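Narrative summary of target 7.
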Amino acid sequence: MTDQADETPIQRALRLKKAAIEAKPKPPRGGRFQREQAAAAASSSKSTPWMKK
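Modeled conformation, tokenized:
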């Protein structure tokens, strides 16, 4: 990355924003958790009859 002395305020803000996003805990990927999330998303659409053909 660039030296922090010569970066603009916008570049500094973007760098700090990206660092904050990376620091947040991420949901687990794959496995049972992902299957449960997909099943929940699929079942929620069944309760909206106006969305059907």
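The two ends are 52 Å apart (CA to CA).
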